[in-house]
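Hey,
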Amino acid sequence: MPAGHSTPQTLGELRASKLPISRSIKDEMRENLIARLKRGESIFPGIVGFDDTVVPQIVNAVLSKQNLILLGLRGQAKSRILRALTALLDEHLPYIAGCEIHDDPFRPLCRRCRDLIEERGDAVPIAYLEREDRYVEKLATPDVTVADLIGDIDPIKAARGGENLASELTMHYGLLPRANRGIFAINELPDLAGKIQVALFNIMQEGDVQIKGYPVRLDLDVALVFSANPEDYTARGKIVTPLKDRIGSEIRTHYPETLEEGIAITAQEAWEKRGPAQIEVPGYVREIVEQIAFSARQDKKVDKRSGVSQRLPISTMELVISNAERRALLSGEAGALPRISDIYAAMPGITGKLELEYEGEMRGADTVVKELIAAAVRKTFDRYFAEVNTEQIELWFNLGGSVKLDDRLPAAAAWAELSQIQGLAETLDVLGPKTSDAPAALVGGAEFLLEGMAAHRKLSRSEERGYAAPEKPARTQEAHSLEVEYEDWERSRRTRRGGGYN
C-alpha cells in the first residue's frame, strides 16, 4: 500500500485525490516506458547481450500497445524478460477491496462491485495492488482446461446464494480474469490444446471472455505475453493460425553471441560468494566453462533443436566452485582456487543439460562431455599459450618424467611436485604475475598448461599415470603382417641375385 497518511481508503477519497486517472494496462506500460526512455534508465536491468537485438523490439511492441511472443530455445531468458515487464507498471494500483478480478473503482466489471457501489457509494473500501501482484504466469500443458484459464459456473455458489446459474454471482473466475488490469503470461504456448487456444481469440481481439455459454461477458483489460520454442511455434498443428495472426510482435531471443557476454551472464547468475573458504575463480576457468556451452552448441552430436541452455555454464560453474571448496575444506586451506580437474568433477552439471543426437547416444553422454571439455580447454589454451614454447616441458616428459596430481593435496604440496618440471614455472608468466605466496594460483595455472598440452596430444593423461609423455601407437596386426611379408620378399630377392641389388 502506498506510504503516507493521505492514501485514499474509500472511493470518495480516491475521487478527491490527485492519483492518476484510470487508464488501460497497455497505456500504463507505454507511458511508464516513455518516462524511462526519457530518463535514460535501463529497461531490463540484469539482461545481458540483448541491448541491440531483443530489447529494441520489445520496446517497439510496448510503444505500439501490442501483445507479444518471445521465440527462443531453452535458457534464453524468455521467462525472465516477461517477468521484468512488471517494471513498466505503476508502483501501486487502487482496486475495489475484496474483488477477485481487481476491478477498477471507476469502471467496475463484475456484478458484485457494481452492486456494492450502488449500495454504499463513496464509502466503498479501496485496496492496492503491488507491481508483482499484477503478473500472472501459466505454464502451458496439454491438460489445461478452459475452466482453468477462463472460468466456470460454480453450482455450490449458486445453491448457497439462491442464484440462477446464469447470474454473474455464480462464476468461478479462472487465471485470466484474475489477471485483469495486469500482465498474463503463458509459457510454451504451442503446448496448449487447440480449443484452449481458440478461447484466447476474443481476449486478444475484443478484450472480453464468455463463461460456459451464458450471456455473461467481461471486458477484461489484460496485456498478453507468450513464450515458445521456434520449431514448435511454426510447426503445423502446434499453434492455430488465427491465434498466431492476433499476436502483434514475434520477437526472437538468442544465446550469448560472444564469450564475454556468456561469462558476464554466468558470473551474474551463478552462486559464487560462499564461506568459510575465500574463493577466487581464474579468468581461464571462466572461459573454459563458457566455451563448453559454445562448443556444445556447434557439436554435431548435440541436438540443435533442443538447444544448450545458458543454465549449463551456470550450474557447471557452481559445481566447479563447490569441488574447489571441498578440496580447501579437506586440506584446511583458507582459500580455494578452481582448477581444470574441478571442471571434470562438474560433469553432472553438464550431462543432464544436453540432448544428444543418435551418434552422441551411441558414444555415451560422459564421453561426449569429456570431449567437449577437452575441446574447450584446447581452444582456451590457444588463446593464452599460442606463442609460448613448451619444448623444454615436452623434453622433460619424454625423458621419463610424469606427474600425478592428488585432489586431496594442499596447494603447497602439489606445487612442490609440479615445480620439478623443467621450464614450467617460467611458462606460467603469461597467466599473470606469480608469487611464492600463491601456490594455489601456480598449481591451477600448471594444471591448465598440462591439460592444454594433453588436449593437443603433446602429453598423455590418464587416471592411473597422470600426465606423462605421449604413448607411442601400438602396431596393428595388419601392419606387422605386411612387415613380415616384405622381409620375406626382400630375403628371397637377395638370394636370387646373389645377395646384391639390381
